[in-house]
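Risk mitigation, structural track. In case the binding assays with oxa(dethia)-CoA fail to produce interpretable data, a predicted complex structure has been prepared as a fallback.
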Amino acid sequence: MNNVRIIGTGSYTPDNIVSNDELSSFLDTSDEWISSRTGIKNRRISKGEGTTQLAVNAARKAIASSHIQANEIDLIIVATMSPDNFTPSTACEVQREIQADNAMCFDVNAACSGFVYALNIATTYIKSNMAKKALVIGSEVLSKISDWNDRGTCVLFGDGAGAVIISEASEEGIMNFHCKSLGKLSQHITCGARDLNNHYISKQTDKYIRMNGQEVFKFACTYVPASIQKLMEHSPYSLQEIDYFVLHQANKRIISSISKRLKIDINKFYMNIESYGNTSAASIPIALDEMNRKKILVKGNKIIIAGFGGGLTYGAGLITI
Ligand code: UT7
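Fallback model:
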């Protein structure tokens, strides 16, 4: 089996920064409630850019950072739960825009676990010699599927995209994954698509994100540490040897609870939820790119990424830099 490494990262978020105070000007909420319950202070909200545009901008930065040409990419996977279209896929649109004419392209929907799932798939393609260089993107415009009259959900989400380029390599860089789904709990996070509206029937669908927050909170605090423990069963390292934990940025209190359950110092958990809110599939690659640009990631670092969310889905991956 081939070795796989991350060779570049990129991210892009809309310019429009929306603070908790700004939300309080049109919603019955407060900075105190949002920041104490979630850790969120600001989020980026699109004033026109779609999911594809955010993905393209993040992809261009990842390609520049990896010093490759777009036509060397033979696989593009976009993780998103908020695509611009049913078809073409976001990945095919990215391919057109960046002229990665040699790639196979498709989207993956595993909600907030989407990036971990997509990275797992792309890694498997390279390990099994079906691709040599892959572009893996998480991109979301959650503001278009948020109910801006529902203070229980719309304050949580933000728009953004993050991307990585992974490549066949001489040394191992992406070790293994543990990904699972719990379809029996699917109704804890929902967002309908189109109405069923044809010659025979007209049935309305709720087109906004609805979430049973407390159940999802408990699910995350239970299943994510268990997933990380499972991942480590097949790892050459102990949990204590891991340098950074990059978890889906949904709630500071969830990350803190997971750090306690794993008995790992909270300072090893990278957090940027304060600036971006919950960007679903984009949160982990945005964080990885920030860490890369801040030069926090150094060769030899061992990182665990972990996502959780709609599906319900969850998953963890072990990466060495
Ligand atoms: O990314 C996908 C995965 N998603 C998650 O991981 C989310 C997991 N869940 C959570 O992070 C938390 O459950 C939330 C942050 C969503 C909610 O926090 P909570 O402590 O579970 O609050 P709650 O939903 O139980 O609401 C408590 C109170 C309610 O008022 P009453 O009934 O006690 O009077 C809500 O109406 O807070 C009220 N509330 C708000 N108040 C001010 C709900 N949203 C707001 C708001 N501002 N924005």
